């Protein structure tokens, strides 16, 4: 077995997956409240000697000291939760979260099934009945519904659509100097229990704990994506060069094998 081929192969697979992540980040660079993703991996030199008690690879079987890894170890994808910049829209139904926290949404899928999802996208609208909805038409939960994972008419944020309204930093909505409802904003105790669902929404993995958020809401503002387009483009160039290096390594190994079989083998 020519280990150089496997070393180049694992490196190319790793770079291909990194490219997929970077491409998704660039595609969502203008998505409200989007949090970019990145990948981690262990390089070949870090994997060269593996401890006897290390059971992290090859079917959880311990491996002896000096075992030579076949190449880079594909790592996991993680989410960067850094705060995105604020964009002022002056639209009263637009709300941005400053700090840690999520809006709770009563999400209805194409099959008509409703469940609770979470988002940082505060591009809301107010319908003719006064309900606060997302851009896809899903209901925004009030504080009681968000904290207790409940949904239904009693837990949807509703105001008088014919009156002006103001949203305070704690999510309280006021009309005619009276508090009418509160936008539900929650936080998750451990972000390892958050999973991306799609459509700029997140789901809570079993075991995740909902806690109160100390985030501050900004009315008439939206949180921009935290993707830096220039940084992502530079990373994509690096990925392309690393992938090309893997290709050249395979070509070199192939040329060596050809000489071994066709020339050395004839001696």
TrEMBL record:
Which keywords has UniProt assigned to this entry?
A: Bacterial flagellum, Cell projection, Cilium, Flagellum
Q: Which InterPro entries match?
A: Flag_bb_rod_N, Flagellar_basal_body_rod_CS, Flagellar_FlgE/F/G, Flg_bb/hook_C_dom, FlgE/F/G-like, LlgE_F_G-like_D1
Location of the Flagellar basal-body/hook protein C-terminal domain: 219-262
State a GO cellular component annotated for this protein.
bacterial-type flagellum basal body
Specify the domain of life of the species encoding this protein: Bacteria
Q: Which GO terms describe its biological process?
A: bacterial-type flagellum-dependent swarming motility
Q: Where does the record say this protein resides?
A: Bacterial flagellum basal body
The Flagellar hook protein FlgE/F/G-like D1 domain covers 96-174
Span of domain Flagellar basal body rod protein N-terminal: 5-35
**Chief location bin:** other
Write down the SUPFAM superfamilies for this protein, in alphabetical order.
Flagellar hook protein flgE
Q: Which Pfam families match?
A: Flg_bb_rod, Flg_bbr_C, LlgE_F_G_D1
Q: NCBIfam families attached here? A: FlgEFG_subfam
The entry's family comment says: Belongs to the flagella basal body rod proteins family.
Q: What name does the UniProt record give this protein?
A: Flagellar hook-basal body protein
Q: What is the lineage of its organism?
A: Bacteria, Bacillati, Bacillota, Clostridia, Lachnospirales
């Amino acid at each position: 077995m020519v280990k150089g081929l496997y070393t180049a192969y694992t490196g190319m697979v790793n770079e291909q997956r990194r490219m997929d992540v970077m491409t998704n980040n660039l595609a969502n660079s203008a998505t409200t409240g989007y949090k970019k993703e990145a990948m981690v991996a262990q390089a070949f030199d870090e994997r060269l000697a593996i401890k006897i008690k290390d059971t992290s690879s090859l079917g959880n079987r311990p491996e002896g000291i000096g075992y030579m890894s076949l190449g880079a170890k594909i790592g996991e994808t993680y989410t960067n939760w850094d705060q995105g910049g604020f964009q002022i829209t002056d639209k009263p139904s637009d709300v941005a979260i400053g700090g840690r926290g999520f809006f709770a949404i009563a999400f209805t899928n194409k099959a008509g099934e409703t469940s609770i999802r979470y988002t940082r996208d505060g591009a809301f609208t107010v319908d003719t009945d006064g309900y606060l909805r997302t851009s896809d038409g899903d209901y925004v939960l009030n504080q009681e519904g968000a904290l207790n994972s409940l949904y239904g008419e009693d837990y949807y944020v509703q105001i008088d659509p014919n009156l002006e309204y103001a949203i305070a930093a704690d999510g309280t909505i006021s009309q005619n100097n009276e508090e009418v409802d509160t936008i539900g904003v929650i936080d998750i105790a451990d972000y390892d229990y958050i999973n991306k669902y799609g459509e700029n929404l997140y789901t809570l993995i079993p075991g995740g704990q909902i806690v109160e958020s100390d985030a501050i809401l900004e009315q008439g503002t939206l949180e921009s994506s935290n993707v830096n387009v220039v940084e992502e483009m530079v990373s994509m160039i690096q990925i392309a060069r690393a992938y090309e290096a893997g290709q050249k390594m395979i070509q070199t190994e192939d040329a060596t094998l050809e000489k071994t079989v066709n020339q050395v083998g004839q001696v």
